[in-house]
Give the backbone structure.
Amino acid sequence: MYNKTSATLMLQTIMVLMEKQNSTDVTHFPSNFYDDADLERCYRPYGCFSKAYPWTENRPDNYFPVPPETLGVRYAAFTRRNRKIPLLLQAHDTEKIRNANIDPSGPFYLISHGFLEGGHKIWIQNMADALLNLEGNEGATIFVVDWRKGSQPPYGQAVANIRLVGSMTAHLIHNLFDVLGLPNLDNFHFIGHSLGAHLAGYCGHALQKKFNLKLGRITGLDPAAPYFSNTVSLVRLDRSDAKYVDVIHSNAMPLYFSGFGISESIGHVDFYPNGGSTQPGCKNDGSQRQIGNNDMYINVLKFVSCNHERSYELFTESIAPTCPFMAVQCESYEAFLAGNCTTCDSKHYCIPMGYHSYNIYKRLQAAGLLDTNTHISLYSMTGDSKPFCMVHYKITLKVSNSTESRIHGPEVGRISIILVDRNNSKSDHKFIDNDQKYYKPGDQETRMVPFKDTGLPPLSVIVEWKYETNLFNPITWRLLKSPSIYIEYLKISSIEYNTDITVCPKLRKPVVANLPTVMKTKYCGFKK
């Protein structure tokens, strides 16, 4: 039976493995450092930190944050003028801020890492570069929140430390606000991964409580679940922490299934790419197993971290995407896959996942369709490698119920399709179903299928029938007839291009196994 103790053991075991990859030293504290009966500890000017409820809720252990001087938090400031060598700030470096020649027009971005990481990580550099390269961001300043000394094991201590780091970061932002003479914090965007997402929430809360200021935006990238799931909003990132809070869930599974991300909808907008739990290309199929201990460690590490890390890869790509990166509001991921949410309307809002989501959200607000209390969960599908962005098509397949089809009988196999646009550019090939399916005359099925974007909607479709004989299934035996399927039509509906086409086989001929068949709209008018 799963319980808090087994969850903690699993977490600590995985975290110890992950610790080996980190290049920084673990900070060790005196054994009696936390041996006191206090329920509150204060660090001026950052505030007091309690160990009473709700900080005890769903937490097997509980710590105070370590002192600010032990944390050694640094803020590395980057602009287009200094991409490689940052200006290093601390929370109260007002004189440095005054002399730093920071453009007050902004925008301002803060990026925070999570557990066992630091501000030096390559994903942070890639994200910062993408933000600086964005058109219109000539005056942008990026602050990397580097709290690596506080992100070390035990996990519970790192969880406590982000409360203080969040408050310290709030003081830094307030100093920027004062020194630069800013009217508000609408131009501030805090991006945090895992524990860093909740750190951003603490920063947003502290700004409101201490300085009566509200961050413009917080983006939570797979916010950490352990010690944060099923807690009150004060303990975790919440949509009250900024004017706009968007969340990308990429590893929302129980801890005992190697899930690190929170599953709850905690933002104004919550994105669940590929359902939000596991990501394409991250499956551990065992094919990479090696005998050496180090290789085994690397494989375990890849398995437990790939899904969790995908959130920041998706967000970085969304800054300058190769396609619309559209996500659709739906009742569930299963309903989305079944093609129940394919129209962008008042029942199913369509919002691009990631960086550009706020622009569409504000338009919906301006039109009176949303307010600040409205929550939206959206779903999408992505690829298994970069670029991850895909376009979505609702595919409706109708198996012919003609005399020829009934005489031929049912078939077991898979249908593969390739979309072809007016420039004869071809998409990647995709199966309508991942597993073999039993098709009988008159059947109809609908599925949502993602494709690499060619830049234009399709005009025709190349269809293949993938047939596999199973010795133990007589239905798959084709001794006298060619393995084939009679398809009456395919209807292809695009979310991104808002187009519909229906294509049919020429002369109602069957699709023969392993023989590509071109289907076009003009073939649908044929009558025998």
Q: What stands out?
A: The longest helix spans residues 293-319.
